[in-house]
Amino acid sequence: MRQIFNAYRYLALIVGVLLTVLVFVAMPLKYFPADGSQLQTIGEQLVSIIGITHGWFYMGYLVAAFLLIRRTTWSTGFKILVLAAGLIPILIFWVESHVAGRVREEFPEVT
What is the predicted pLDDT for the residue at 1? Predict the structure, then answer.
């Protein structure tokens, strides 16, 4: 359980940072500067690189989150929230802190 929990926490952090940078830095650089400008080109490159990287890490996050929630008795709604948290910027940080609290409560040997 400890390994799954640690993998979940690291992947949640990586996915959250990547998604936040993608949505609040790369996408504005792609869509707000004038067409053909150097900033827009940089934004396009960042969106491509960060978007793909986020996607791969999100798949790993889904696997770790699924393995983690299989061992819990959480409500279906919370389980869905945990799985979807990597799709909404900033939400994943809040969800990860609640998951950490619940895991430590249900599995004291993890801490």
Answer: 84
